[in-house]
Amino acid sequence: MSKKVAVIAPDPVNGMGLFQYLEAFFENKIQYKTFAISDKKEIKTNSGITIVLDDVVANLKGHEKEYDALVFSCGDAMIPGSKINEKAMADAVGIIAEFNKENKLLIGHCAAAVIFDNAGVTNGKKVAVHPYGKAAVKNGVATDDKFNVDKNIFTAQCENSIWQLMPELLNALK
Fold it and tell me: What is the pTM of this model?
């Protein structure tokens, strides 16, 4: 039986990245539930499309044990000066740390490595990160690789390299 995945997404989310994960999970019969890093389930993609996720990240707190893996689907909300919901992002960072305590899979692209680093889960681990985010990774080892798998952390440099990470990810989730 495949693993169950919690997918968290900021507002706005990079739709191309998010939909690659969701489509791959759907096609491979991997259970998932989506959570908005917001106080509402309705978010937008970076191209302005409104989508409604299953729940909000605050409701994932305390339910981490129900999932085997967590995807942080990056978005334009990671750009400095964006209007990210700070409480929801703090909840997301705490949830990431909780998943890591249980050695569950942490998956993401673009600035996900920065968020993972902020959650204190990258110590000494190699992470693929968007070139603009490399300097923000302090505890992990930021690489120029298109993707990296280091223990429980699966990262892709950007949405254009998720497909290169996907075979290893799907194998780990089945």
Answer: 0.96
